[in-house]
Specification:
This protein is α/β, with parallel strands linked by helices. It has one domain: SGNH hydrolase (Rossmann fold). The protein has helices spanning 2-14, 71-79, 95-103, 129-132, 139-146, 150-153, 164-167, 171-176, 181-204, 231-252, 263-271, 313-331, 340-352, and strands at 34-40, 83-84, 88-91, 114-117, 157-161, 209-213, 258-261, 272-274, 280-282, 284-288, 291-297, 303-305. Strand 6, helix 10 and strand 7 form a beta-alpha-beta unit. Helix 2 packs across helix 12 (313-331) and helix 9 runs parallel beside helix 10. The longest helix has 24 residues, at 181-204. This is SGNH/GDSL hydrolase family protein. InterPro entries: SGNH_hydro_sf (IPR036514). It comes from Variovorax defluvii.
C-alpha cells in the first residue's frame, strides 16, 4: 500500500500541465502592455479552444467556427499590444489532479486543461462556486500566477464575469416572485464569492484594477422569445435581476480601482428590449451597408446569438469595443478606443468569407 501511495504521489508531482519547462520563455509581452486576466464562465472561455470545442464542429460557430471569436479573442486581435491576455497556450490539468497537487502543497495550475490565453481562467459551465473553491477554483490559481510578477500586475486588470449559470435556471421563479427567498440566496451567495475573490486578489495586489460584469437578462435571449410574454412577468424578471446586479455594483462602490459593467444596459443600447406588453421588439444593429445583425439564432455572423446559444462574433466584437471604452472611462487606462470603422474593417472579411465547406462537398 505504501508503494502504491508513493507511486500516486510521484504521478501527481510529475503530472505535466502542458507548459514549457521555463514558462517565462513563452510570456513575450509588449512594452508597457496592461496585463488583463479573466475569471468567468463560457461567455469568456475562448471559442478557438481546440481542446474543448473542435471535436464537435457544431459547437461555437459550426461551419463558421474558425472565425467565430469570443470577446477576449477580439481584444487580442485588435488591442493585443495594449491589453495583454498572455500567450495562447495549451495549459492545465484535470480538476481532481490540480486539487490533489494543491493538497500536497504543489501548484495546481489551471483546471480544466484548455487552449486559451494564459491569463484567461474562465471555463464553460463555471458557476459562482468555482471562483474560490472546488476542483475548478479560478481565483486562487490566477493569484498564484499573478504572484510570479507582482510588479506587472500593479498596472493590471482582472475581469470577473460570472453568475449567469446560478441565475438562469430560476427564471420562472423570478417571473412569479422577484423577492423569492431562493433568489435572495443566490444573490447573497454569488456576491459573497465575488467579494471573497476580490479581497484575495486585493490583499496581494492592492493596485490591480478589478472590473465586475453584471448578469445578462435571459429574457433577451432569442431562445426565450416564446416565454414570459406578459408585462407582469417581464417586469418581475427585471426587478429580480436589477436586485442581483445592484448587489454586484455595490461591491465596486467607493473604490477607484474597481468598476461595474452593466451588461443589461449595454445590450439594450444595441438591440433594445421587449415592448410594454412583454413581447419581443428588438431592433437591428447596422455596422455598414452590408452588415446588419439581428437578435436571432444562427452561426452566420448576421445573427447575434450562435446556434449553441452563446454570443456570436458581432456581439463579442461590440462587447470588446465597449469594454475598452469602459476601461478608459472607469480607470483612465491608456488604451486606444476601438472605432466603429475599425470594428467594421475587422468584421467585414470574417462575414464575407462564408461558411467552411465540409470535406468532399
Amino acid at each position: 500500500m505504501a508503494l502504491i501511495l508513493a507511486a500516486a504521489a510521484l504521478t501527481l508531482v510529475l503530472w505535466s500541465d502542458g507548459m514549457p519547462n521555463d514558462p517565462s520563455s513563452s510570456r513575450v509581452t509588449a512594452p508597457g502592455a496592461i496585463p488583463l486576466a479573466v475569471l468567468g464562465d463560457s461567455n469568456s472561455h475562448s471559442y478557438q479552444d481546440n481542446l474543448w470545442f473542435a471535436a464537435d464542429t457544431t459547437e461555437r460557430g459550426g461551419a463558421y467556427r474558425s472565425r467565430t471569436f469570443q470577446w477576449t479573442e477580439v481584444l487580442a486581435r485588435l488591442r493585443g499590444e495594449q491589453l495583454e491576455l498572455g500567450p495562447w497556450v495549451r495549459w492545465g490539468r484535470p480538476g481532481v489532479v490540480a486539487l490533489a497537487r494543491e493538497w500536497m502543497g504543489l501548484r495546481g495550475g489551471r483546471a480544466p486543461r484548455k487552449e486559451d490565453y494564459l491569463y484567461n481562467f474562465a471555463n464553460s459551465g463555471a458557476a459562482c462556486k468555482n471562483l474560490m473553491g472546488g476542483r475548478f477554483r479560478q481565483a486562487p490559481r490566477l493569484l498564484a500566477l499573478m504572484n510570479e510578477d507582482p510588479e506587472r500586475w500593479a498596472r493590471g486588470v482582472v475581469v470577473i464575469r460570472i453568475g449567469l449559470n446560478n441565475w438562469a435556471g430560476l427564471m420562472d421563479l423570478q417571473a412569479a416572485d422577484p423577492a423569492a427567498p431562493p433568489l435572495r440566496e443566490v444573490v447573497a451567495y454569488c456576491t459573497g464569492e465575488i467579494k471573497a475573490a476580490v479581497a484575495m486578489i486585493r490583499a496581494a495586489h492592492p493596485a490591480t484594477r478589478i472590473l465586475l460584469v453584471g448578469v445578462f437578462n435571459e429574457v433577451d435571449d432569442p431562445a426565450n422569445f416564446e416565454r414570459w410574454q406578459s408585462a407582469a412577468e417581464v417586469r418581475n424578471i427585471r426587478l429580480a435581476l436589477d436586485g442581483f446586479n445592484a448587489a454586484i455594483r455595490r461591491l465596486a462602490e467607493g473604490d477607484a480601482r474597481m468598476a461595474f459593467f452593466d451588461d443589461v444596459a449595454w445590450f439594450r443600447s444595441h438591440w433594445g428590449s421587449r415592448d410594454a406588453d412583454g413581447k419581443p421588439a428588438y431592433g437591428t444593429v447596422e455596422l455598414g451597408p452590408s452588415l446588419r445583425v439581428t437578435n436571432s439564432i444562427g452561426d452566420d455572423p448576421r445573427h447575434a446569438v450562435l446556434t449553441d446559444l452563446h454570443p456570436g462574433l458581432v456581439w463579442n466584437a461590440l462587447w470588446a469595443q465597449a469594454l475598452v471604452a469602459h476601461l478608459r472611462e472607469a480607470f483612465g487606462l491608456p488604451v486606444t478606443p476601438i472605432s466603429d470603422e475599425e470594428l467594421l474593417r475587422f468584421l467585414e472579411p470574417l462575414v464575407a468569407a462564408g461558411p467552411v465547406k465540409a470535406p468532399g462537398s
